[in-house]
Design goal:
Helices cover about 20% and strands about 30% of the residues. By secondary structure, it is α+β, with helices and mostly antiparallel strands. It has one domain: Jelly Rolls. A 4-stranded antiparallel β-sheet has the order 1-8-3-6. A 4-stranded antiparallel β-sheet has the order 2-7-4-5, with no helix packed on it. The longest helix has 25 residues. The termini are far apart. The model has no long low-confidence stretch (mean pLDDT about 85). The structure holds 2-oxoglutaric acid (AKG) and fe (ii) ion. Fe (ii) ion binds next to loops.
């Protein structure tokens, strides 16, 4: 994928992350100074990860699914775009729920840096459909210069 396109995507998604963070900050009555506002979740402190989960080879054990280990994101806010292959799962209570892919939809995840106020959801990827590749892009806004307290 072209670098320019990825950078442009990152800029748009960061804009959404900033709007969401500002709304959350307002809801929590956090006082943000002008500097904090302008430095808030800037592109330069974010990460864009583009993933390709390949088709499974016949060598793999039957039923074994390719994916990503269970984790929470270490970000402030992550914005994920997945294709329609499926495989993302979130933990609700003690149960794993499969996230049904919806076309043209972004998935917003709160990360560990929001931990005091909210709890980031544990998630993982288990790609059950071995016949197709899965692609996803995750923009993690790290907001290194922002302190919530
Ligand atoms: O590929 C996915 O759907 C999940 C990616 C993810 O959880 C991450 O980058 O932290
Ligand atoms: Fe994640």
């Amino acid at each position: 994928m072209c670098r320019v396109l990825i950078e442009e995507y990152g800029r748009h998604i960061t804009r959404i992350a900033v709007s969401l963070f500002e709304a959350i900050a307002q809801a929590l009555n956090l006082e943000l100074s002008g500097d904090q506002r302008s430095e808030l979740l800037s592109e330069s402190t974010g990460l864009i990860r583009v993933y390709r989960y390949p088709q499974s080879s016949s060598v793999e054990a039957e039923g074994e699914a390719l994916g990503m280990e269970v984790h929470t994101d270490s970000s402030v806010i992550s914005i994920l775009k997945e294709d329609e292959t499926g495989g993302l799962e979130i933990m609700k209570g003690e149960e794993w729920l499969r996230v049904k892919p919806v076309a043209d939809t972004l998935i917003i995840n709160l990360g560990d840096m929001m931990q005091d106020e909210y709890k980031g959801v544990k998630h993982r990827v288990k790609k059950k459909d071995r016949t197709r590749e899965r692609h996803s892009a995750d923009v993690q806004s790290l907001g290194a210069k922002v302190s919530l307290h």
